[in-house]
Amino acid sequence: MGLGAGGLLAHQSKGGTSVDNAMDVQLPLKTFRDMKAEAKGCIECHAKKTPGIVADWKMSRHAHAGVSCIDCHGVTRDSPMLTRDGHEGSKVPISVLVSTNTCGKCHEKETIEFRHSGHARGAVQVWSKASMRDLMEMVEGRGHPDLKHAPEATGCIQCHGSIIKLDKNRRPTPETWPTYGIGTAFPDGSVGNCASCHSAHKFSLAEARKPAACASCHLGPDHPDIEIYNNSMHGHIFNAEGNQWNFDAAPGTWKVPDFRAPTCATCHMSGNSKSAVTHNVSRRLKWNLFLPLSELRTGGYETASDAYKNGYQLTKGNPLAGNPKGPEAARAEMKAGCIDCHNSTHIDNFFVMADKNILLYNEYWKEAVKMKEELAKKHLLGKDMWADDFQNIMYHLWHHEGRRMRQGGIMGGPDYSHWHGVFEIQQDIRKLRKIYAKRLKTNQIED
């Protein structure tokens, strides 16, 4: 158990034995740990065919603990995950897919916490909405019989997750895999993708603690969280000196002075005086800010797995992942991470104004909804929401400007709270008022 990466794998070279160059595929590879022959065969073969995979595994904690390829990829012949019944001479049935059910065999606590988080519902948020499916396939994909799945396969599912399907040869289909989507649904019925944050096959803890782990999905016009972070003082400090911080501390011990400012993981996952380390990234969130109207996260929702079994339809409960003790407990746990560096007045004042900024957004949204409802009663809304100026502007007020305003305010990103947020929202509401007044006056939808 104490052997380093070099003690696991070595190859014979002309000058003797090198212990750190598994990438040299021209020379025979030896495995010294007491692994089963099938496991050794996987490592030795893949060191030649996919040396990058073996190099990543070699540097992982899995390798140090003797966890082999078969421990994660081996399945039974009757498993819905089976993709190859024997592979390259091996007798072990395997799956190219590794689900959270597999990870949960060793990481049960983390898997349970993840499944109660908003991350686990990533795919639900896409596939449960007919409007989103229509947008991806019929609007963006033009309803093309062969090309309509391209927008979702190259875009949406790479963050939100796919429903992985196997073809008649038991290979994952190109429309559904590969994906690093956080809420991916696997053929075994499990939901979630640990490799979204802990990239395969190294599964680095340090990697997941850095903002880049979150930045590949939390960016762009609708939720520019990495841009907001970079705009904040926290991001300024990280970008100035984060390469000097200690990201390798043991789980549960990572805290100041390992770092001088928080990263995403510090606030949402790391242990503090009121909360243990958690993989429920929603546990410390008081508000749900992805919804059109900001609502308190009250819990009591069904899990993503339940929704998946129901064809990705949310059928019960309140789908607002949060703290089981309520929104104020969530806020208290978030504040507990701030107190290491800030006094209580600083913290309290920040959140008072951030909450008011969220409530101000709600006022804009409620006005827009009131106008839309009246137009709908008079049949003055276009059937195609993407071609209707009123509905299109209202969508952007929520999905783009509204998220930027709220998330910028709660994460200390002033440019996103203001110029990319509320300033654009007040422009949106003026445009909506003009369209609303004209339609009521003329009793028709403008060309």
Q: How is this structure best described in words?
A:
- With 447 residues, the protein is mainly alpha-helical.
- Helices cover 45% and strands 4% of the residues.
- A three-stranded antiparallel beta sheet has the order 2-1-3. Strands 4-5 form a two-stranded antiparallel sheet.
- Helix 2 crosses helix 3, helix 13 packs across helix 14 and helix 18 (344-377) packs parallel to helix 20.
- The N and C termini lie far apart (72 Å).
Q: TL;DR?
A:
By secondary structure, the chain is mostly helical.
Describe the secondary-structure layout:
Layout: H1 5-8, E1 9-13, E2 16-18, E3 29-31, H2 37-49, H3 51-58, H4 61-64, H5 69-73, E4 84-85, E5 93-94, H6 100-103, H7 108-115, H8 124-127, H9 130-140, H10 150-159, H11 205-209, H12 212-215, H13 225-231, H14 233-241, H15 264-268, E6 287-288, E7 295-296, H16 304-309, H17 327-336, H18 344-377, H19 389-410, H20 414-442
Helix pairs in contact: 2-3, 13-14, 18-19, 18-20, 19-20
